[in-house]
From TrEMBL:
It is an enzyme of class 1 (oxidoreductase). Belongs to the NADH dehydrogenase family. The keyword Transcription does not apply. The keyword Magnesium does not apply. It comes from the Bacteria. This is NAD(P)/FAD-dependent oxidoreductase.
Amino acid sequence: MKNILVIGGGFAGVWSAVGAVRTAREQGVHPTELRVTLVSNTDDLVIRPRLYEADPQAMRVALDRVLGPVGIQRVAATVTGIDTDSRQVTALGRDARPLTLDYDRLVLAAGSQVVRPELPGAQWLFDIDTLASAARLDHHLRRLPQSAPFDGRFTAVVVGAGFTGLEIATELAGRLRDLAPRERRDEVRVVLVEKAESVGPELGEGPRPHIVQVLEELGIERRLGTTVDAVSGRSATLSSGETVPAATTVWTAGMTASPLTASIPGERDRIGRLVVDAYLRVKGVPGVFAAGDTAAAEAEPGRLTTQSCQHAVPLGKFAGRNVAGDLLGLDLVPFAPDPYVTCLDLGPAGAVVTSGWDRTVQTTGQEAKKLKQQINSAWIYPPVDDAGLILRWADHRTTWPTAEVAA
Ligand SMILES: Cc1cc2nc3c(=O)[nH]c(=O)nc-3n(C[C@H](O)[C@H](O)[C@H](O)COP(=O)(O)OP(=O)(O)OC[C@H]3O[C@@H](n4cnc5c(N)ncnc54)[C@H](O)[C@@H]3O)c2cc1C
């Protein structure tokens, strides 16, 4: 019996595991000859791209409804170490009992996390990085209308004007207006704080004029070349010396790959991702593949993958194909994702869709929002319960469901 072990129950981990089963089945390999196991510290696939929306607790899919029908064994545990010499992974089970899991081939797909700053009052910061932290923010917002009035009750400071910061800032502009009693609506303020001198520093020039126009329309204030030095439950103190009375400060700045990447003796990039070859094998570490936010793969010549669902899904499917292919002696297939696009939600102002690495604007407003809603409510969700459908969707040649695959 050969063992493939996948670490992580996000987009990349799920599609790696299902992709491996698909490849084994295509080759007529019996489940008693090749076992695929997925270890995750959550019971659900968390739909992280939706955690800026209201009701984040609903943004998940039970892992057993995707993995169970295709015979993937799930271990609910937190991985604590990886020994690539002995090909063993150590973990702590739910009951805190230590576990050792052996593998012949490993896929590391443990994702990423926001880098929380160490600053006075950091415990007052909110973030939308995990289901639990997004739920904490959601609960806090819903309670605001019931609290006694105070200066800054309906003010939110959002730190970081990248993808996540822009999505939560524009969402909050609408949400706080809906939550505030009518006679208090003029108290609603959203202040976007960004260390760089422009909003969307990594988004480039293409969509920036539209984003700036939207921020103005929504009345979102900008503090550029600035960061937050201290927070309390009632205010945020900016590096400029300004103190903004605010009940809510949301931190979105800076992402890093899972710390588990440090257990693998491979090269890592500046955000901790493992450098992989065209087949998603970690360079120089036999038997180990990486996918999703833990992998730095070439998406197109000279362009590395981004930490995004858009890349995590195909990285997972290709890693699954190749990890099984490697064990079964098949030719490996080079990673080849769909052309790069972005779709940024801008709250009540719609969305903006761009294409290419220079992010040329394709559509904006409500037309772009329709696409965002389709992506968020359908495309990124894996099918559940139906083994045939789940395996068809794992085809590495198709990133998003097509009519043929769904049929
Ligand atoms: C608010 C927000 C908005 C976003 N918007 C977009 C967007 O619009 N478009 C887009 O393409 N992308 C977006 N992203 C990024 C996208 O969500 C991630 O790139 C994607 O989730 C990465 O998938 P992954 O499987 O690599 O990692 P994750 O989704 O992070 O999954 C990692 C998995 O590993 C598990 N895990 C971690 N450590 C351990 C451990 N030690 N032991 C066991 N299990 C472990 C986790 O519990 C989780 O199940 C957004 C992210 C956020 C937070």
